[in-house]
Amino acid sequence: MKVVKLEDILGSDNEVDGGNWVSRRLLLKKDNMGYSVNDTIIRAGTETHIWYQNHLESVYCIEGEGEVETLSDNKVYPITADTLYALDQNDEHLLRATRDMRMICVFNPPLSGREVHDENGVYPVDED
Ligand code: 9YT
């Protein structure tokens, strides 16, 4: 049994600032759950290009307001509290926050820890 408290992540190596967002990494690959879980704040007024070609991600918004635009079809999905989006096609997208958004993000395969997006909005594949 494992219990993780957000207050213990804040200010530690498991709090990763990506510029437009700050990701508090609650569970990682080393925890051997087969997925990772982040509590992430997307900063108000930002637009982030993301394309997780090596991961599937589900994102559950618990606070705030913004939208996701999928780039294959330019559809725009409003995102507010109590809304989940799942990038089930490794969808390339733009994430825009009009207010700070608090998101619970689950990745399969799990993140190993310090990932930040590369210039194409991708997290690298974990070679281990
Ligand atoms: C919602 C989203 O994809 N934000 C970018 C950061 C990423 N999810 C993370 O590492 O928490």
From TrEMBL:
E.C. no:
4.2.1.108
GO molecular function, a single term: ectoine synthase activity
On the tree of life, the source organism's domain of life is Bacteria
**Gene Ontology BP annotations:** ectoine biosynthetic process
Which UniProt keyword terms apply here?
Lyase
Q: In which pathway does it act?
A: Amine and polyamine biosynthesis; ectoine biosynthesis; L-ectoine from L-aspartate 4-semialdehyde: step 3/3
Name the InterPro entries for this protein: Ectoine_synth (IPR010462), RmlC-like_jellyroll (IPR014710), RmlC_Cupin_sf (IPR011051)
List the Pfam families hit by this protein, alphabetically: Ectoine_synth
Q: Gene3D superfamilies in the record, alphabetically?
A: Jelly Rolls
Q: Which reaction does it catalyse?
A: (2S)-4-acetamido-2-aminobutanoate = L-ectoine + H2O
UniProt enzyme class: lyase
- Matches recorded under PANTHER family: L-ECTOINE SYNTHASE, PTHR39289
Q: Which family does it belong to?
A: Belongs to the ectoine synthase family.
Describe the function of this protein: Catalyzes the circularization of gamma-N-acetyl-alpha,gamma-diaminobutyric acid (ADABA) to ectoine (1,4,5,6-tetrahydro-2-methyl-4-pyrimidine carboxylic acid), which is an excellent osmoprotectant.
Q: What is this protein called?
A: L-ectoine synthase
Look up and give the organism this protein is from.
Salibacterium salarium
Lineage from the top down?
A: Bacteria, Bacillati, Bacillota, Bacilli, Bacillales
